[in-house]
Amino acid sequence: MAPYGPGMRRLLGSAAVTLALVLVGGCSGSSGNGSSSSADGGGAGAVADEAADPVGGDAERQVITNADASLVVDDPAGAAQELSERVESAGGRVDERTEYAATGDDEGSSADLVVRVPSDALTDVLADLEDLGEVASVSVSRSDVTGDVVDLDARISALQTSVARLQALLDEAPSTEALLAAEGALSGRQEQLESLQSQRAFLADQVELSTLRLHLQQPGVAPPGGPDGFVDGLGTGWNALVSAGGAAVIALGVLLPWLVLAAVIAAAVLVPLRRRRAAAAAPAAGDAG
To answer: Burial of 126 by CB count in 10 Å (0-12 exposed, 13-18 middle, 19+ buried)?
Structure first.
């Protein structure tokens, strides 16, 4: 048999690279969807074990914890500064901090903070809030994301294997067409890998650092617009009366056309009825006479 020519060898090489790309893509796709198979007899048992324990028996629970708290303090700005220092000393950070100055006698100063605290230090930070002032309310919520983390780790591992295989194929590409095909597949795999790694990093940050939102308010703050004394109360009552009177006038204006229409209909029905009754009563009176 005659040996293959250069053209035939390049064709066979391109076909081999294409087949390898298909196999690599299929393997990474199967792993990314969370299902796997094995050539030996232990594959079914592995899948059954994974179904029985989807997050793994030795997997550490991954929990995201968020908390909200409202405090009544004499100096919201000072309390916000002290709280920021405590959070940073505990290994956390301050993501947002907004302070509102007093605008008048009816509205005192306040402050809002969004801080990130190490999850294992959140309980102590919440307990220490009593040192800053009166704790008006506290709420804590937890979300278990262990399954999401395990799934992302498996998909990332599969894509890393796929990327490594594609990089090896690039070095062995026998033609320009095969090289371009391998580069295209590698670019797509790398984009998927970076996206999954970004999601994994976000979850890791949420699990490691709990989010705590706080509102600090001065004590004895009256609702905005509330009266300060008898004169202000009298003025507020008069304004409410005027507003109610205006609303009544508007309601009357809306209902008046309907009232006129109802009166016309009632007159059209009652007037003929009364005339008939009067006409029927006249002969009866003559007979009686």
So the answer is: middle
